[in-house]
Amino acid sequence: MNHKFGFIASLFALVCTLLFFVGLILLNDSLNYWSCLFLSWAYIGTACALAQEAPADRKGVAGAGIAIAAVYSLLTNLVYYTQLTTVAQDAAGEEVLRVFRFQQGSWMFGLDLLGYGLMALSTFLIGLSMVPAAPRDKALKVMLMLHGAFFPVCVLMPTLDVFTEGSGGNAGIYALMGWCIYFAPAMALAARHFWRLMPAPVPR
Fold it and tell me: pLDDT tens digits for the chain (204 residues)?
């Protein structure tokens, strides 16, 4: 059951990442918010399934990866659900909407970056907990751990006031596209990992 669940979750995370990439190309904010909302849930499922495979002396590391993944999901869900409800429906005063609206340098933008920084820390810990048994599992472990490099970047940049509120540009879109190009293969490797471990159907 764990392997089947992990396969479905990681495959769903892959699809959500690809949809996010399409949304970036189309400049479709609604598609971006929905895809990233579901991506957070799918990633938690993937992390939980991978953590179940951790040996006893790495269970603490795997558990920390799951806990941090939950915080990532909470923060990003707060951002995206606010955009899809309160902001999209103009369900507050203009001053409140200005604060809640997702734009570069805004409060929501900072929460989103913090969330993805924590996601990167989670992937690092989940990767650290893995003991690969196959070459492609080694590649998955390396990709998850290297993804952890986004943690300090995402957390520190808003605190250093790198972004100006309301500013924007293609550089941010290209950076997110690059992230999709990196993260999608990691989820594809995770899906393949679980697929390989799933028991073959019993012939009738």
Answer: 889 999 999 999 999 999 999 999 999 999 999 999 999 999 999 999 999 999 999 999 999 999 999 999 999 999 999 999 999 998 888 899 999 999 888 899 999 999 999 999 999 999 999 999 888 899 999 999 999 999 999 999 888 877 665 555 677 889 999 999 999 999 999 999 999 987 765 455
Question: Are 46 and 11 spatial neighbours (Cβ–Cβ below 8 Å)?
Answer: no
DSSP one-letter string for 102-156:
--TTSHHHHHHHHHHHHHHHHHHHHHHH----SHHHHHHHHHHHHHTTHHHHHHH
Residues 6+ apart with CB under 8 A from 197: 3
Q: Residue 145, exposed/middle/buried by CB under 10 A (0-12, 13-18, 19+)?
A: middle
In this structure, how many other beta carbons lie within 10 angstroms of the beta carbon of residue 164?
A: 9
What is the DSSP track for 32-72? Answer: HHHHHHHHHHHHHHHHHHHHTTS-GGGHHHHHHHHHHHHHH
Q: Are 103 and 166 in contact (CB under 8 A)?
A: yes
Strand, helix or coil for residue 143: helix
For residue 151, give the 3-state DSSP assignment: helix
Which of 56, 35, 78, 190 lies closest to 123, judged by CA? 190
> What is the C-alpha to C-alpha distance for residues 68 and 21, in angstroms, rounded to an integer?
24
> Cα–Cα distance between 115 and 175 in angstroms, integer?
16
**pTM of whole model > 0.85?**
yes
